[in-house]
Each structure stands twice: as structure tokens, then as C-alpha cells.
Amino acid sequence: AQSVTQLGSHVSVSEGALVLLRCNYSSSVPPYLFWYVQYPNQGLQLLLKYTSAATLVKGINGFEAEFKKSETSFHLTKPSAHMSDAAEYFCAVSDLGGTSYGKLTFGQGTILTVHP
Amino acid sequence: DAGVTQSPTHLIKTRGQQVTLRCSPKSGHDTVSWYQQALGQGPQFIFQYYEEEERQRGNFPDRFSGHQFPNYSSELNVNALLLGDSALYLCASSSIQGMMNTEAFFGQGTRLTVV
Fold first, then answer.
1. Alpha helices in chain A (DSSP H)
2. Could you give the residue ranges of the DSSP H alpha helices within chain B?
3. Which of A91, A106, B62, B113, by CA, is between 20 and 30 Å from B40?
4. Which of A42, A49, A103 to probe the B interface (max B CBs under 10 A)?
5. DSSP state of A15
6. How far is A33 from chain B, CA to nearest CA, in Å?
């Protein structure tokens, strides 16, 4: 079984400040990890993914995440927040194969607010 | 590339009615998954279709059913609607490459309101 815990349902930062959104996972098999962003009344857009290659993954819009197996974490960061980053962010885990056939298990989401 | 398209975008139904939601996958994708996202929650996996068969199912009652057509498009049907079925329904498509599934691409969703 796989699960995801996102620490902090709401994160608020000032424009230009560091963004850090936390994600911890549980998986009985080697995980594939994803961060998705959702704007109001929209679907999910993939920000970045970890698929067992480099542990530091760079995504779109300046976001990156680091896979730390020892800490079972996959935290999302961005050095300098922009007003357009305000959205809800979801961490998800899958094994992309095996018996789950790529089923995604999502965390509860973190709403990011960016203040001027 | 049109990406994943879902219809309708919004829908209002009365308790006890039945509803059908539709999804066209991204070009080149052959697998369709459906997710339910209740307000303030993360998406929850309903089921997945591949080669016109339900391959895997999440923890949803039999009132939720689906279908996949030869062109890989898919429908989600919900019978005997309950107020608790109000949610954003997301369709995601992917494809099989070797033994692995590619990453999932999501549509914009269908907002279902049950009154």
C-alpha cells in the first residue's frame, strides 16, 4: 500500500521568499513521486516527477524537489515566490507498474498563498 | 495536441438521478483513470480502464461504473446520486510503455453538484 502525507494544509509566504512545501510518503515498493498544481476550478498540472533517476528533480516554473529515501520525503521548493504561484499543490505517489498500474495516491493538498 | 478533454464542465443533478461524464484521452494514450475530488480534499482513485476493461478499482460503490470505447475515450456513470457525490471528477490518461505506465495527464474536470 502507498500513502502520502503533506505537512501543512496552508502555507503563506511573501513574494520573493523561499517556498517550501512538505511531502512524506510511504511505499512498500520503489516509489515514483509527483507534484501537481491546481488552480481554482482547474484540473491538475504536473510540476515535476521523480522516477528513480536523479534525486534532485527540476520542474516547471522554477520549482524543484529532492527525493530523500532515508527520510521518505519529497519536499517541493522554489527559491523566490511569485504571485502567480498561489494555488493548491498536491504530492502523489505511484509505482507506475506492478499491481497498481500507475494508480496515483494523493496527499490532502497544501494551499499556497503569496503576499505582496 | 488537445490534451485530455472532459465534458461537460459543470453539471447539476437531483438526488436519485443518474449521470454520465465523458473523457477523451491525450493523443497516443490508451489508459484512462477517473478520480473524485471532494471539496478541500485530494483526488481519490475511482477506477482505471485499459483495453476496454476495468483493470483496477478504488474503494467506491457499484453505483460508480464506467466504460472505455475502442477509440480509448471513456465514460463514468454514477447511479442513484447522493448529495455526497458532489465533487470535481477528474479524468487522467496515460499509456503503457514496456511494463510501465507513463505519467498521467489530467483534464480540467467536471464539476458535479447534486441537489
1. none
2. none
3. B62
4. A103
5. T
6. 10
What is the C-alpha R_g of chain A?
Answer: 14
**Contact between chains at B104 and A106 (C-beta distance less than 8 A):** no
pLDDT at B1: 65
Nearest Cα to Cα of residue A38 among A17, A51, A21: A21
Neighbours of B10 (CB within 10 A): 11
Report yes or no: B90 at the A interface, CB cutoff 8 Å. yes
* Cβ contact A1:A98 at 8 Å: no
Total beta-carbon pairs less than 8 A apart between chain A and chain B: 68
Per-residue cell: A100? 497498481
Question: Strands A110-115 and A32-38, how do they pair?
Answer: unpaired
CB B103 within 8 A of CB B94: yes
What pLDDT is recorded for position A31?
85
pLDDT tens for chain B, 115 residues long, are 679 999 999 999 999 999 999 999 999 899 999 999 999 899 999 999 999 999 889 999 999 999 999 999 999 999 999 999 999 999 999 887 665 667 889 999 999 999 9
Q: How confident is the model at residue A102 (pLDDT cuts 50, 70, 90)?
A: confident
In this complex, is the C-beta atom of B2 within 8 Å of any C-beta atom belonging to chain A?
no
Interface test with B, best of A10, A33, A41, A44 (most B CBs within 10 A): A44
pLDDT in tens, A17-26: 999 999 999 9
* B13/B91 Cα distance (integer angstroms): 20
Contact at CB, A103 and B105, closer than 8 angstroms? no
